[in-house]
TrEMBL record:
Keyword RNA-binding in record: no
Name of the protein: Stress up-regulated Nod 19 protein
Domain of life: Eukaryota
Signal peptide: 1-24
Keywords: Signal
Record-linked Pfam families: SURNod19
Length: 435
């Protein structure tokens, strides 16, 4: 009888491993309850023409070992009403992950950067820019309201794993908010593109001189700067918040983790002699300038600026989600594999009205990619080509060409097989011992 039972258990084990894909997927859908919560950032104040760029540490965030399934945000007033982009332009919001010492040398909640020796260690995404550049877990800009991010089952972004947090530290989160109040300004587009002449600045936030050929961008619209107003315009100061909504599930072995990669079209590579092209020195600049096209091109409607870069991805996997980030004037962005196949193409949509989420002339959404899991694979070390396209009938300053990817190193049946084999066989041994 004991031998019959043993053979039956092993047969069931083999059957479960072979059917891992369907078992794991159906388990996640039925057993994992999605939780959702909306949070508010600390209050920030804006008056016509003013700029805030704040860094708020230890923000409200779901606790525990969980999988993030969705993250969205928008600017609202004290009554919770959404604020349109033509009043307050959301240049960007960025959410980063940190390990904070339980005995920090310095903690700040006043909206300013924390010194590097504060006891906080940034836990950046999986790359691929240098240092902590573009290391965020979540973040968008003006397109926030119209860009979806709902990670399909059984995938999720793993956070809060106690085994990953160093002893003496705890996991915290930071949000960086960059917003520009354009009520009553002379040039709304110029203000949102941070044109230096409109901000009347010659030094950056660190009091370093801005180079003469730098016409606009992040160096000119830092915290507490002001964009030029129409003569005589006055308007009230108001209190605003970043409202961010998170969906998550409790972590279990059936969830397949995804890794976050952020690619930047401004990235250039210095290849190491010893790296074989895989461990290279990246140089992401985050922003760039788009020069206006010639008069001849304008008449022929051929004013298109294309910027490309090619980047090796050391560790590949299966693409689960993709989306680009562009500024006004953007036409779209595409990520290609080394065989020129399209991995993901993300196209902006522009508003046509006045209400929040449909503001005329502003990018109010970016199309996203949700390939069938397993259909698009990036091989280890594959060189990807990122292309960012802008209309350059007019000059654009401080534009961006970022691409956000979620990649799973395993498909559900592979993950299920690996994560359950040891625990299942342990249960089998226990059955044998009990009998």
């Amino acid at each position: 009888m004991w031998f019959v039972l043993r053979d039956l258990v092993f047969s069931l084990a083999i059957l479960l491993l072979l059917l891992g894909t369907s078992c794991s997927s159906s388990f996640v859908k039925t057993e994992n309850k999605i939780k959702s919560a909306a949070f508010l950032s600390p209050k920030f104040e804006l008056e016509p023409g003013s700029v805030i760029e704040k860094y708020y540490y230890d923000i409200d965030f779901p606790k525990g070992h969980i999988a993030i399934k969705s993250f969205n945000a928008e600017v609202v007033d004290e009554a919770g009403n959404p604020i349109p982009l033509h009043e307050t332009y959301l240049h960007h919001w960025v959410v980063e992950r940190y390990y904070q010492s339980k005995h920090p040398t310095q903690t700040r909640h006043d909206g300013q950067k924390i010194p590097e020796n504060s006891g906080n260690v940034m836990v950046r995404n999986n790359g691929i820019c240098q240092g902590n550049k573009n290391g965020q877990y979540f973040g968008l800009g003006s397109e926030t309201r119209g860009t979806t991010m709902d990670i399909p089952d059984p995938f999720g972004i793993e956070i809060g794993n106690p085994e990953q947090v160093p002893e003496g530290f705890e996991e915290i989160w930071m949000v960086n908010i960059h917003a520009i109040d354009t009520r009553g300004v002379e040039d709304k587009l110029g203000c949102t593109e941070c044109r230096c002449d409109l901000y009347n600045v010659t030094v950056d936030e660190d009091w370093s001189s801005i180079r003469p050929n730098y016409k606009g961008g992040l160096l000119c619209c830092y915290d507490d700067t002001h964009c030029k107003l129409k003569e005589g315009f006055e308007g009230p100061k108001r209190s605003l918040y970043l409202k961010y909504t998170i969906k998550w599930v409790d972590w279990d072995d059936f969830i397949v983790p995804v890794k976050i990669y952020m690619l930047d079209v401004t990235d250039t590579l210095q290849l190491s002699n010893y790296s074989e092209g895989l461990n290279s020195d990246h140089d992401c600049q985050v922003e760039y300038q788009v020069e206006s096209c010639s008069t001849d091109h304008k008449e022929g409607n051929g004013c298109v600026h294309v910027k490309r870069t090619s980047l090796p991805l050391k560790t590949g996997g299966y693409v689960i989600y993709g989306v680009a980030h562009q500024h006004s004037g953007g036409i779209g962005s595409t990520l290609y594999g080394q065989d020129e196949r399209i991995i993901c193409s993300s196209i902006p949509s522009y508003g046509k009205g006045n209400e929040a989420g449909n503001e005329a002339g502003y990018i109010v959404g970016m199309s996203t990619c949700y390939p069938q899991p397993g259909s698009i694979k990036i091989i280890d070390g594959e060189t990807l080509t990122l292309e960012s396209i802008y209309n350059n009938t007019k000059e654009h300053t401080g534009v961006m060409g970022l691409f956000y990817l979620l990649i799973a190193e395993e498909l559900p049946y592979q993950h299920f097989r690996h994560s359950t084999r040891s625990s299942f066989l342990m249960d089998v041994n226990n059955i044998f011992l009990d009998n």
